[in-house]
Specification:
Helix 20 packs parallel to helix 21. This protein is mainly alpha-helical. The strands form three sheets. Strands 1-2 form a two-stranded antiparallel sheet. Strands 3-4 form a two-stranded antiparallel sheet. A two-stranded antiparallel ribbon has the order 5-6. It is built from 22 helices and six strands. It folds into two domains: 452 residues, Orthogonal Bundle (MetI-like fold), CATH 1.10.3720.10; 32 residues.
């Protein structure tokens, strides 16, 4: 029977035979394009390095730059996803390990990109002299730091809130770590991973301009890409080129939304923990086409599935056998393991103390006035961060719940949200700056707006994921018992989204502190605009190669974020773990 596809308001009726041919042809062309992009990226990574590089602002170069930037983002995302799955799983292995890894994660997400960019760029460039590989790896690593923490926190929250009875079944059955990880933990976290991946990808766009260009003294380390194009247009003060670059970026975002993220959202819906399936499920035309493609079915059945089954079976058997061995450890073996863990802890503490003493030796070059400036800057940035977080909460909670609970609103608003979240605020900031500088408050207000644009999506995407994860049977029960309005929010919605809301607030807070680097120190048309804040201090110190002040600003920001997370957010996290999860 023929099926009608509707795209952009146009109905197309195809017979099954013709539809299958067109689908397979499109998939085949897509695979060829993917291979071409991989070859193009490999060729680019092996080009000679250039310390003096000029970005071509010709519109004809935009597709090439878009391909290069998207390739870097994709590599960084794959690394971030693997890192997040491993790191979060290690963090929940035991309270002792959690007490070390989560504070480290708090510190890592609080270190701004400008603080370690000089060392990363120079170090990796020195490892690959005469080649662009070092710069490309540096850009990937810097983009990775804007993507990884959000996914890690999201998966960590999921692992903490998996229903206890499911964990008990996995433990009693003795299926081992690997089978528990692939059959229970990853499926439980798919919805959170997908939505946080979209947010992390948007975060990568946010810092793309900083990741693709860096100047040290008379050397300009730049990589061709959309980020460098937008930065060059902003430095030139050319609004036309800036809008052209932004237009290409929007085209890339829309294409990724249609071809990648929307199919993933529709696919992830099947991982909801519920007894009754919802009648109206998320749909994606691309996912439908892929499921009907003979080429995809052939590749999955003949190549992907046999390889995965072999790997899964082998690792599963080894994991199950090691699990049995672990359960039969003697008291002596446990003592040996404890000694090894103690030695590792001592080494880590020694390294931290050594780094602290080295930092103190550098700090002696700072004056009392500079320390006072750091304190005032930290207070100013803290107030802006709180303002951005509160403003975000006011609108993201109702909008996120509406999108997550109601398929009609999801279809209407989700594409708009994904597009808006993916457009980097740093690309819009030069145009916004011209407007805000004419208003009362100037850059003080503009800085809050930019921090808001860079952090509100962390909250919104996590809230949408939390609302979508609510089991359909609970929603039906609330309708049967006429639990509506405020009572529904109190009894069902807020408790259900609370763990996701906490994750969103933690990552949004860390993102706001990082966004202060570009919010409090802005450059447009060769003119620098500054306002009091810790981000301004760090950005100014990086541009002036004032490394003692740069280190002090970075340590101050890390200590403030770490202290807030330890004293406040971690307690809220444990509350979510103990009281607000499905059983």
């Amino acid at each position: 029977m023929a099926r009608m596809y509707t795209q952009a308001g146009v109905g197309i009726t195809l017979s099954p035979q013709k539809r299958s041919v067109w689908v397979d042809a499109l998939v085949f062309l897509g695979l060829i394009l993917l291979v071409y992009l991989i070859v193009l990226m490999a060729m680019r990574w092996h080009t000679p390095i250039a310390t003096k590089f000029s970005i071509n602002l010709s519109p004809g170069m935009l597709p090439y730059y878009a391909v290069l930037s998207t390739s870097r983002m994709a590599v960084a995302y794959i690394v971030a996803l693997v890192f997040s799955l491993i790191y979060a799983r290690l963090a929940v292995r035991s309270k002792r390990i959690e007490g070390i890894l989560i504070p480290i994660l708090d510190i890592l997400q609080s270190i701004p990109i400008l603080s370690f960019m000089p060392g990363v760029v120079l170090g990796l460039s020195a490892l690959f002299p005469g080649s662009s590989i070092g710069l490309e790896l540096a850009a990937v690593l810097l983009i990775f730091t804007s993507q990884a923490w959000n996914i890690t926190f999201g998966f960590y929250q999921t692992l903490l809130t998996i229903p206890a009875e499911l964990k008990e079944v996995a433990a009693i059955s003795g299926i081992g770590f690997w089978n528990t990880f692939t059959r229970l933990e990853v499926p439980s976290g798919v919805i959170s991973i997908v939505w946080n991946s979209m947010m992390s990808w948007a975060g990568g766009w946010f810092f793309l301009m900083a990741s693709e260009q860096f100047t040290l003294g008379n050397k300009s380390f730049q990589l061709p890409g959309l980020g460098s194009y937008l930065q060059a247009a902003a430095n030139k003060g050319d609004i036309t080129d800036l809008l052209l670059g932004l237009g290409m970026l929007i085209l890339v975002i829309v294409a990724l939304d249609q071809l990648l993220w929307r199919p993933l959202v529709a696919w992830s819906d099947k991982f909801k923990i519920e007894q009754n399936e919802a009648g109206d499920k998320p749909q994606a035309w691309m996912l439908t086409l892929l499921r009907e493609s003979f080429v995809i079915q052939f590749l999955v059945q003949k190549m992907v599935r046999p390889i995965w089954v072999k790997i899964d079976t082998t690792i599963g058997k080894v994991s199950a056998s090691r699990s049995k061995v672990h359960n039969s450890f003697t008291q002596r073996e446990h003592a040996i393991a404890k000694i090894i863990w103690t030695c590792i802890s001592v080494i880590l503490i020694g390294a931290l103390l050594g780094g602290a003493f080295a930092a103190l030796d550098i700090f002696r070059f700072l004056s009392a006035s500079e320390w006072k400036m750091l304190g005032i800057g930290a207070g100013a940035t803290l107030l802006r961060t709180l303002a951005a977080l509160l403003i975000s909460l006011l609108w993201t909670v109702p909008v996120g719940v509406a999108i997550g609970l109601h398929p009609v609103w999801s279809k209407k608003l989700l594409p708009i949200v994904q597009l808006a979240a993916s457009i980097p605020a740093t690309a819009l900031f030069p145009a916004l700056l011209l407007i805000f500088l004419m208003l009362p408050g100037g850059l003080d207000i503009a800085a809050v707006i930019l921090m808001l644009l860079g952090t509100q999506w962390y909250l919104l995407f996590n809230i949408i994921a939390g609302a979508m994860a609510i089991p359909n049977d609970l929603k039906e029960a609330s309708e049967i018992y006429h639990i509506t309005g405020f009572r529904q929010w109190k009894i069902l919605i807020l408790p259900a989204i609370f763990p996701y809301l906490v994750t969103g607030m933690i990552t949004a807070t860390g993102g706001a502190w990082n966004a202060s680097i570009v919010a409090e120190y802005a450059s447009f048309a060769g003119k620098v605009h500054q306002t009091v804040g810790l981000g301004d201090i760090i950005a100014s110190a990086a541009n002036q190669s004032n490394f003692p002040l740069l280190l002090a600003g970075t340590v101050t920001m890390a200590l403030v974020v770490f202290s807030i997370n330890r004293l406040f957010w971690q307690r809220i996290y444990h509350l979510a773990e103990n009281r607000f999860h499905f059983e």
